[in-house]
Amino acid sequence: MNVKLLFSGVCSACFELENSEPYYAPEKFKVLLNDREQYECDRNVFSLYGLQPDTEYRLTARGETFEIAVEFWTMAERCCIDVRDFGAVGDGVHDDTTAIQTAIGCLPENGRLIFPAGTWLSRPLMLKSHITLELREGAALLGWPQREDYPVIPGYVTDTKGVEVHFGGFEGNAVPMYQSLLTAQYAEDITIVGPGTVDGNAQNTDFWTNFHNFPTARPRLLFFNRCRNINVHGIHACNSPSWQLHPYYSEKLGFYDLLISAPKNSPNTDALDPESCSDVDIIGCRFTVGDDCIAIKSGKIELGRKFNKPAEYHTIRNCLMEFGHGAITLGSEIGAGVRELSVSQCLFRGTDRGLRIKSRRGRGKNCRIDGVSFENIRMEGVLTPVAVNLWYNCCDPDRESEYVWSREKLPVDDRTPYMGSFRFKNLFCTDAEVAACYIDGLPEAPIGEVSFDNVDIRFSPDAKPGVPIMENFAKPRCRLGLYLDNVRRIRLNNVRLEGVDGKKLLVGHVEELEKNNFCEE
Fold this sequence. Notes:
With 521 residues, the protein is mainly beta. It folds into three domains: 2-73, Immunoglobulins (Immunoglobulin-like), CATH 2.60.40; 77-273, 3 Solenoid (Pectate Lyase C-like); 292-521, Pectate Lyase C-like (3 Solenoid). The strands form six sheets. It has a 27-stranded parallel β-sheet that branches. A hairpin with a 2-residue loop joins strand 3 and strand 4 (36-43).
């Protein structure tokens, strides 16, 4: 084994114990800083907080069977100030917005703003480049409860030369939105670090009720538009009015050792939705939310055509997903496609679906998904471990139209999406209920290739019927085996299914099927 430094800021650092186990370490180990014990850990990704800037440290991970050390430097900073110096109170009652926003405005480049223990009640805040926000142990930045006090950000405006300048969006369109609790626009080099909390406080607002009748899209908790070099480390993000963390047309992003949570029945509280972003690391995070845990997006067809900015070069590793509609989701708003995605060493517990890909006719010819790899994944109590759906019927006015649901082979045109290769390797799933795998491509544009290598899926004896994918006329299924339709090439190697009702393999409209060590009895 080895210890890898994932992130080092001015006051915190994050590390990864390199091994093959998903999320949890092979054994418990002690974390030492300069040979002084800090705490005991059982996870592959772990952190240190309260460090001094521009200082050399020695980190040691010591278990029964190993001892590994790494030296690292924290970053230098220009100054460090406390929100209380600007009049913030932190009692959860006083409105601290003006004090916090003034402190952010006064921070010089490479400055740090400290939130000590307390509850810092605030309306939406605007961040700027080259700063660090540190929420210390016991600190909570709490969202304002009155919706009417949230400013509205336009989707875009047209400048004096007729050029569109984009500011906001939701569900794949450039639309007005309520300002998020923490927003950055066209900024760079921003760090938000814990171990404190950013709490959207949506349970005490009307953001989770009657939201379909709001005049504009609900805010996110953290929203980064056209930003670069953003790092979010160690915070607890919770109770957002809608999606929790939403990076938008941004690049070079790191999300490390986060806890992102919302009640299971909270509407559209996706944990982390990078949209049309590149070079994204999501490592060592835990998610338990009311919708998808991670949803990778790239806009609907209009934005896909206008900017053609795919979601690309994303790495998701050593994460724990507990509850949510999908653990790892691609789409459905992927008008510019997804490419070069690696998901590995993750643990899914109790999500409706594990690895979930969703698109539909109308996402456009730029909606190309290719180079996607899922490896070394463990699932426990996931209803449908693998779901690839080209018939998704949500989030659009025409979702119930014949164009969306027709099983006829329609002409390939500018509205037709493309699905390339998907690789699933070393998947171990227990207590599945609905379907082991449900992959349903388009007859006019079949999925290129699906390969399963070293896959073991076992059903719960108490499984209950459910719908494996969201489509028109969906039928409940229970203990369904591998269902694949409209796929050019299928490769099955060392695949085991246990507890299936009926046939283990159901395929249709497949050009090439390769099986090795797959028992269909």
